[in-house]
Write a structure and sequence with these properties.
This protein has 195 residues and is an alpha+beta fold. It has one domain: Alpha-Beta Plaits (2-Layer Sandwich). The strands form three sheets. A two-stranded antiparallel ribbon has the order 1-2. Strands 3-6 form a two-stranded antiparallel sheet. A two-stranded antiparallel sheet has the order 4-5. β4 and β5 form a beta hairpin. The longest helix is centred in the first third of the chain and has 23 residues. The mean pLDDT is 89.
Length: 195
């Protein structure tokens, strides 16, 4: 017996029919690619000074914005995310504004939840660590740029020029992001990776 009932799944106008057909063709390809190349794990964000370990930080933070309000550099921003645990948690994007490692460490003192621990010294900060891409760095291209070294709030304790005339990250780097913020190259030759 032949079923004469019309197929109501197939659109009737040309534009919708094209979308329908394209969706039917590309859907298996999209599924294959998603299985073969899963989405990368989200990159950890650079947290303000004194931040607890990430999972504990996310559980502890009140998401109140107090640290953002007291930051003298206006470097602290709030995460926009579909993940309710991450949404509104504070972070720093050095491309937009870096932590200036202020003398009073205002954000750590103002945090009401303890997600940012009070620090007694700027040297206790462990936000991240700078990494240099020598293939992009102007010094590697024969220029005498010292912008990152000159502007680093911790000076040679964090960044210096090595005997080969290259930028060298020192143990004193706290990951404030000033070097990334002031780097004149695009893409940045020096970036900070969260710890």
């Amino acid at each position: 017996m032949v079923d004469d009932a019309p197929n109501t799944d197939i659109p009737r106008d040309r534009r919708q029919l094209f979308r329908y057909g394209l969706g039917r063709i590309l859907s298996p390809l999209a599924d294959y690619l998603q299985e073969r190349f899963p989405a990368p794990e989200p990159r950890l964000v650079l947290r303000p000074p004194g931040a607890l370990e990430e999972s504990e930080f996310v559980r502890t933070c009140y998401k109140c914005g107090t640290c953002q309000n007291v930051c003298p550099a206006h470097a602290i921003r709030r995460v926009v995310s579909d993940d309710p645990d991450m949404e509104n948690t504070p972070y720093i994007d050095p491309d937009l504004g870096a932590c200036i490692v202020c003398e009073n460490l205002e954000c750590t003192k103002a945090c009401p939840s303890g997600a940012l621990q009070k620090l007694t010294s700027r040297n206790e900060i462990r936000m991240g660590l700078a990494k240099v891409d020598f293939g992009v760095c102007l010094r590697s291209l024969g220029e005498t740029c010292t912008t990152c070294v000159d502007r680093c709030p911790l000076g040679e304790a964090a960044l210096k020029i090595d005997p080969q005339s290259r930028v060298e990250v020192q143990d004193g780097c706290v990951g404030c992001g000033v070097c990334q913020n002031v780097c004149p190259t695009n893409p940045r030759a020096i970036t900070v990776e969260p710890r």
